[in-house]
Structures are given as structure tokens and as C-alpha cells.
Amino acid sequence: MFASDLLRDRVALVTGGGSGIGLSIVEQYLALGAKVAMVSRNPERLAEATAALKERGFDNVMGVQADVRNYEQVSEAVRAVVHRFGSLDILVNNAAGNFFCPTAAMSSNAWKTVVDIDLNGTFHGCRAAYEHLDASSAGGCIINIITMQALSGWPGAAHAAAAKAGILSLTRTLAVEWGPDNIRVNAISPGPIGDTEGARRIYEERGRAEQERSRVALGRFGKKQEVANAAAFLASDLASFVTGENLIVDGGRWLKYVSEK
Ligand code: NAP
Ligand code: COA
Predict the structure, then answer these.
(1) Ligand 1, closest atom to CA 18?
(2) What percent of the chain has pLDDT over 90?
(3) Once rounded to an integer, what is the mean pLDDT over residues 165-186?
(4) Which of 86, 118, 146, 180 shows a CA-CA span of 20 to 30 A to 165?
(5) Ligand 2 geometric centre to CA of 136 (Å)
């Protein structure tokens, strides 16, 4: 659907790029001519994803191990990507942790863990990438993956909802702070996306998949590719005047809330 050279010679770093929605974004960016790094904790997952992508003929791909909670590790990962590919133009903060847990039963460490991965991890990515995005000849681009439940509240996932709301705020702050540096900063809010760890944990394993589907105006879960399409648009020159935006890719779920009780 996009011209096959849409992201030619752009360099992208996708946190949590070895699985799920992140991996679909990696595949899409590679198919559109970008050089792409996947950053996450599990080296086996990264090695497997890298090998599978190389098998498909994508040579400009690398995996870098880092925990986004650790700023030094994120900085080191950014340095490794710039060392290998020569620049950094696009940062996708996609890594996240989530699990269903009523707030009255949530430990302090459970809360902190999710906020640390999602919100602090996103700050770490942005901060570590800044000087390279600032130097990007194409103009820098940050895409943060959030959810509309950041705005509505999310019973059973207060930690993730609060962290993602913080990321939306950071997105808008940086869009203004870094706009003069020609860095665009946007968010994507996917709805429930099929064949992902997120949907498995929060809906499928809890027997809530049908109920969740009924909330979606389009009557189905989204596809990972549908989120990757939005991420390609926002990363490309097609979105050259778009910043501070939260692009909702949720089949109309946020318009059609049905109470769980
Ligand atoms: P996923 O496959 O579990 O993706 C999460 C990724 O984050 C994994 O690759 C994981 O890799 C990485 N990660 C987790 N903790 C990390 C850490 N501390 N440091 C570095 N990497 C870390 O789940 P997904 O469902 O595709 O979710 C992807 C994104 O979409 C998340 O931001 C999620 O909130 C958002 N989202 C998903 C849905 C959905 O329906 N699935 C809906 C709305 C929004 P390692 O284990 O190797 O670290
Ligand atoms: N219910 C309640 N508390 C939970 C929980 C659950 N299902 N899973 C973890 N916790 C708590 C732990 O008990 C611990 O708190 P405690 O010290 O008070 O006992 C705290 O959360 C941290 O857990 P831990 O397993 O040490 O964290 P981790 O850093 O190894 O892993 C997670 C982070 C918990 C977020 C893990 O699920 C993960 O790695 N997720 C990544 C994939 C993912 O979540 N994908 C979906 C994205 S939408």
C-alpha cells in the first residue's frame, strides 16, 4: 500500500521489537527500506527474530539487549545502533509490561514495575535518542505506543493506565520542546490486537475476549499489521506536519464502552 522506498535509509530503533506489535512494526519498516534495531531484555528472542528476518532477506536488522528501566543500558543500545547504522531517525517506544490485577490487591512493587517499564522506559528512550534525532538529516521521529484506556481509566490495570497517561503527557510536552529541533513526537493507541501477549493476558486468558470484541465498533480485534501501518505513516514524510498527535487505531472501541459489571 505504501511506496516500497517510503523509509529508505532511515534508521529506526523499536523497543520490544522482538515480539507482537513491535515485531510487526520492525517488519513493516524493513519492508519500506529502513534499517532497524530491536531492543529488549531477552537475547534468545532477539536472536530468533533477527535470524527469521535475515532468512526473509532483510539484512539491515540487529538486536540489542537492554532493559528499558536502566538508562545506561538504553544509552548503550542507542550508541550501538548509531555505531552500526550511522544515525538514528526514528524511535518507537513500544516495550511494556502489563498484567491484570485489581488495585486493592496490587503490591507497591507491582505498580512500580509497570510504571518503570512503560513510563520511565519511554523517557529513557527519548532522552538517550535525543542528540541523534536532533542530528537526523530527515528530521527525528518518536512514536510512543499507548492505549485509550490511559484516558478512560482501566479497572484491573491501574498501573498500565497511569503509566500510559504519563506517556501521552510526555508525548505532548516533547512535541513542543523538541519541535524546533525538527523532531516530531506522536503516540499510537491500539485497541485490542489479536495474536499478541497483551490481548492474551488481559482478555483471552480471563475469558473476556468476546466481551471485548463486543466493545469494538468494527466488531473484531485489530491486526498487528494495522498498527504497523499507522507506525509507518507517522514515521514517514507523509506525516511531516503531524506532531503531538495520538493516532487511535482501535476500530472505534473507545466510543463504545460497555461496563464489565
Ligand atoms: P509483547 O509482545 O509482550 O511486547 C512487549 C515487548 O516489550 C516484548 O518484546 C518484551 O521483550 C519487551 N519488554 C518488556 N519489558 C521490557 C523491558 N523492561 N525492557 C526492554 N524490553 C521490554 O506485547 P504486545 O501486546 O505486542 O504489546 C506491545 C505494545 O502495544 C505495548 O506497549 C502495549 O502496551 C501496547 N498495546 C497492546 C495492545 C494489545 O492488544 N496487544 C493494545 C494496546 C496497546 P523482552 O521480554 O525480550 O524484554
Ligand atoms: N498479578 C499481581 N502481581 C504481579 C503479577 C500478576 N499477574 N505479575 C507480577 N506481579 C508483581 C510481582 O509479584 C512483583 O511484585 P512483588 O515483589 O510485590 O511480589 C512485581 O509485580 C514485579 O514482578 P517481577 O516478576 O519481578 O517483574 P519482572 O520485572 O520480572 O517482569 C512483568 C515484569 C511483571 C511486567 C512481566 O509480566 C513482563 O516481563 N512482562 C512483559 C510482557 C508483557 O507484559 N506484555 C504485555 C504488554 S501489554
Answers:
(1) 9
(2) 97
(3) 99
(4) 180
(5) 36
